[in-house]
Amino acid sequence: MKKLVLLLLILSCAVFGEIFYGNLHSHTSYSDGSGTPDQAYEYAKRYLDVLAVTDHAYYFAQKINGKTKPYLTKLAAERHTKDGEFVALQGFEWTAGVGHINVYESLEWIDRNQESSLEGFYRWLVEHKKLAQFNHPISTFGTFDSFRYFPEADQYVNLIEVGNGNWSSGDVINEEMFGNYILALNKGWHLGATVGQDNHKPNWGSANEGRTGIVADALTYDDIMDALWKRHTFGSEDKNVKALLKSGPHLMGDIVSVEDLSPQTISLEYEDTEKLLYLAVISQSGTVLELRPNTEKLNLTLSITPPDGYEWYFVYMKQFDGDEIVTSPIWFQIPSPIYVNSVRVSPEEIHDGESAKVYFEVYNVTGEDQNVKLSVLLDENPLREVEMKFSPYQVKRFVVPTGSLEKGYHRVSFVVDGKLVQSSGFSVKEKLKGVVMIDTLHENDHLEKLKVLAEELEKKGYRVEYPKVMLKDLSGVDILIISTPKEGGLNFAKKLSQKELEAIENFKGKIYIVPGGDEEYRKIYLEQIKGEVVTIEELKKLLGE
């Protein structure tokens, strides 16, 4: 974990830039909503500084009096935009099975009938060079092929909803969206946090108190669009909270270019009539700070040292009334044409003496061919070194085995042409006492007690596994626990198949048989299986030694 120093906490006042409150996701009767764009903008002026009307593009094939709906929406937006008072934006929502994406300020459009693939949509976006946003990233609507990374599209998809007011549970910033925000950042996307109301009723701005905070120089069309392109945003369930994450002259959403891994300073300013209950500073490497400030005003300054040449930091906050706020990140990056992300060490649980695999992606962020040397290190020792060639914006996926690992903390590092561009830490636990498989496929009356036993065994250093479809894959298993069937239930679910019996007969480990309530099948099992008959209490003693 990186070095962190708390420099200053809780001042009586805070200094803010201009913060404006917007809703970047709404619909009208031009698709499946209500009212006209004119009505939407006029209504929203009572609640918002900024409203974007983003109707579903698959409704656009039908024109109105010979004019396209994006054109008519744009005219309405221009009529309602007034410097210093209100900014109206126009766009559309592309919807497909992989997810929904807003595109802003474009008279040209694309829908799922024209292009239903992410690759095709991203090609269109890059060609048209328009600002875009990942909408409501949850499994219900799609998560963009688990946020598969496209470096060139990353220049244009600059926003992501961490909350959506049309979410069926009523929870605007919900756990799944928040988790997918982090997932997208870990894949390499540079995204600003937003909250959209996704209005389908005539309640533009009043559906709830969810807002996107936009930090801009002034309330003008140019300044608001500039702020959105730069990701100078935060997503909030509170309609007027002031939250500002900075690093020197840089604002949340900025990519700060650094030449080395020297300490950096980040600061957070918060102000609202509602007290702040909880605050967490979250980075790519994990949560670096948690506080319970209990204050309406906060000025927090931290000194942090990025562990490598690609690290982001954002702040999550929760107020006493339950409202949540999520800022955009600040990135600290060493200049490089090639970066590494999507790092994953598998399996998640590793024990002393076991090996693992490191999965990662290497990609070119430039429009030019690149030739580089990539070094993968484990605790500063080379795992793999390779000369690599990349075409423009190419992504390559790799898997590197670690070899046998010792108990303790380990760090895998990625060096491109001598620059440490990424790293990731993981821990190795004590050596396993053994692998236990518990049969849960066949009718038995000990399931709850066996679950408790499994928890106790894991605490004692065993790995517990369960058969998925059939009790036949026993490779790597040391101990097999089988309960004979319970009284009642389904007879076909009690029987051991021929393949299961063959696997049990060839099994070289220890077999324990726990008697169940069905006496007939208890006799059958004991005739078919050679094992030690024990109670669950006896098992606890036998395996707890």
UniProtKB/TrEMBL annotation:
Gene3D superfamilies reported for this sequence: Metal-dependent hydrolases (3.20.20.140)
SMART domains: POLIIIAc (SM00481)
Domain of life: Bacteria
InterPro entries: PHP_domain (IPR052018), Pol/His_phosphatase_N (IPR003141), Pol/histidinol_Pase-like (IPR016195)
One GO molecular-function entry: 5'-3' RNA exonuclease activity
Signal peptide (residue range): none
Residue ranges of domain Polymerase/histidinol phosphatase N-terminal in the record: 22-98
Name under which the protein is recorded: PHP domain protein
